[in-house]
Design goal:
The protein is an alpha+beta fold and 325 residues long. The protein has 2 domains: 136 residues, 60s Ribosomal Protein L30, Chain: A (2-Layer Sandwich), CATH 3.30.1330.10; 171 residues, Phosphoribosyl-aminoimidazole Synthetase, Chain A, domain 2 (Alpha-Beta Complex), CATH 3.90.650. The chain has a 7-stranded mixed beta sheet. α2 runs parallel beside α3, α4 crosses α5 and α4 packs across α8. The protein is globular, with a radius of gyration of 20 Å. The two termini are 39 Å apart.
Length: 325
């Protein structure tokens, strides 16, 4: 199949967004979005870096790269609307496998009524999938990392370390878990759940900082602390983890929940009086949320994250998965 035939085969047959004027089929897409702020993000997944055929089926590759983008939109308080796909295709990838990548994206996109509006398709030596997502937010309701203030509650959604545990199980022989728990962790790695509904339910909060947990909570907490010129104090016993994570060693548990990343949960800060808004949002989205710490005035250098484990306090490195390191 040539490039143009392939594009025609994956082009959407229907439009889900009323603001879309022109989708695939011209030099650019055209959409109209009045009276709202536009938010956009891009993520790239490269074979051998973000996934292998041993850890991901083609369907999961598409699902996960779009989920990563959706998580960015959630962290900004946005509603996703459109996405574009640029893909580099090696000759050994079949048409069937490529269509499964697109199906993974389309299945997730349909949950959020998103439209695929364009992209690019080229050949190359290594599979690379790059997704650009476009969303919108009510005017002046975009959520920034720089909004944290002293005495704010620090919170996190879901459970931490699941995706790292799932990757471990996919790449190691481990029979210590039940099949149900093993399947749970593997699904959390392959098909994460972006917290869009939770983020949207926070609209009544006047001030809230959010960050998606893509590179580990230690890294994401540090990004909020640096942007807000504050420090963050986390309590180890309050960090939410799935009960089955306790099956692994203490070292693995600590590493994965703090630095594992790719859970695509949200960490945030909110004034104490607005905590009920956060718990209500979690109820609406049907997900757990936990208080995990407090924002503090910097004792020395702003941007520090302190972890309290029992009576011991440790300054956490801004660590996790980072490229070009």
């Amino acid at each position: 199949m040539d490039e143009f035939s392939f594009i025609r085969s994956i082009a959407p047959k229907i439009h889900r967004q009323s603001g879309l004027i022109k989708g695939i089929g011209d030099d650019t897409a055209v959409f109209r979005q009045p009276y709202q702020d536009i938010v956009t993000a891009v993520d790239t997944f490269v074979e051998g870096v973000h996934f292998t055929r041993e850890t991901m089926d083609p369907y999961h590759i598409g699902y996960r790269v779009l989920a990563a983008n959706l998580s960015d939109i959630a962290a900004m308080g946005g509603t996703p609307a459109f996405y574009m796909i640029s893909i580099v295709i090696p000759k050994e990838w079949t048409e069937k496998a490529l269509k499964e990548i697109y199906k993974g994206m389309d299945d997730l996109a349909s949950e959020y009524h998103m439209d695929l509006i364009g992209g690019d398709t080229v050949s190359g030596k290594q599979l690379s999938v790059s997704v650009t997502i476009i969303g919108h937010v009510e005017q002046n309701k975009v959520r920034y990392r720089s909004s944290a203030r002293e005495n704010d509650i620090v919170f996190a959604t879901g459970t931490l370390g699941d995706a790292a545990a799932g990757l471990y199980l996919l790449t190691n022989q481990d029979t210590s878990l039940s099949q149900a728990n093993s399947d749970y962790f593997i699904k959390r790695h392959r098909m994460p759940s972006p917290r869009v509904a939770f983020s949207q339910a926070l609209q009544s909060a006047q001030r809230i900082a959010l960050n998606d947990i893509s590179d580990g909570i230690a890294n994401e907490a540090a990004e909020i602390a640096e942007a807000s010129n504050v420090s963050i104090h986390l309590y180890d016993e309050q960090l939410p983890v799935h009960q089955a994570l306790q099956t692994f060693t203490s070292e693995q548990q600590r590493k994965w929940k703090l630095f594992g990343g790719e859970d695509f949960e949200l960490i945030g800060t909110v004034p104490e009086q607005d905590w009920p808004i956060v718990t209500t949002a979690a109820e609406v989205a049907k997900i757990p949320v936990a208080k995990i710490g407090v924002v503090t005035k910097p004792a020395r250098k702003p941007g520090r994250v302190v972890l309290q484990e029992g009576n011991q306090k440790t300054i956490l490195d801004k660590a996790g998965y980072t490229h070009l390191k």
